Write a sequence for this structure.
């Protein structure tokens, strides 16, 4: 079993694996080592048949306060060009199973970019979101300018990125950045319960549904509809589809196997 120092990876339970960011002294700042461990854990979860969904969380006070500024300050342009972080982000981005971010407290900079890599965000009332890189004379570097505008639109994305100001959980919900807001003490419980509900569905259908939704950001409508139709037809040949129909007709919970 892989040993981690910057994250904690729980044993899968009810199809859900919980991953906690674990740098409390640094407010869970996303140094390269942490991103590498997270990429490794997600790559392992992608191959683990016990895992059907993953929840990523931080602490009760902070999800992640951003990138590790001390680490970044030690790198010049060549060092940044050789940095392994883009490869780690790519592994996180390509995770094929449902990924939920459970966010309490500050979710800033790289932390907000990580949360936006998730398929949905469950936020506590105490959550605060922002891209404050502009205050350091830089801009988001892990997709912040691209994912944010797709989530909340141009106007709010411009405000957050250009001003460095934060928004609260309710503002993030209204803008479409988060899926749900809960009481702070219930955030992880709700995210886990939602992950367990998702994990009970057909793994094949989940993967194809996620692929189709993500493709909608990058393809014309006609191509997206064609992709959706092909996925729909492919699922007709699966055992899970037959199990779902049989369970519905027999008025019992389905038992999906991913076949």
């Amino acid at each position: 079993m892989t040993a981690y120092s910057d994250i904690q990876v729980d044993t899968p339970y009810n199809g859900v694996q919980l991953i906690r960011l674990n740098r409390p002294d640094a407010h869970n700042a996303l140094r390269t080592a942490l991103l590498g461990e997270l990429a490794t854990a997600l790559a392992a979860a992608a191959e683990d048949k016990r895992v059907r969904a993953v929840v990523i969380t931080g602490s009760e006070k902070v999800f992640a306060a951003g990138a590790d500024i001390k680490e970044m300050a030690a790198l010049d342009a060549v060092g940044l060009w050789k940095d392994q972080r883009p490869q780690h982000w790519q592994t996180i981005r390509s995770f094929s199973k449902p990924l939920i971010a459970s966010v309490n407290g500050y979710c800033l900079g790289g932390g907000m970019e990580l949360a936006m890599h998730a398929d949905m965000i469950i936020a506590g009332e105490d959550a605060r979101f922002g891209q404050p890189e502009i205050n350091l004379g830089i801009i988001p570097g892990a997709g912040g300018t691209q994912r944010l505008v797709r989530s909340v639109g141009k106007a709010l994305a411009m405000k957050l990125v250009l001003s460095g100001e934060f928004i609260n959980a309710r503002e993030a919900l209204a803008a479409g950045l988060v899926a749900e807001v809960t009481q702070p003490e219930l955030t992880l419980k709700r995210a886990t319960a939602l992950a367990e509900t998702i994990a009970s569905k057909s793994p094949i259908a989940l993967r194809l549904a996620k692929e189709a939704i993500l493709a909608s950001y990058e393809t014309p409508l006609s191509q997206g509809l064609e992709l959706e139709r092909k996925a729909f037809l492919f699922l007709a040949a699966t055992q899970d589809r037959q199990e779902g129909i049989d369970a519905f007709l027999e008025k019992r919970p389905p038992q999906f196997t991913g076949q």
Remarks:
- The radius of gyration is 19 Å.
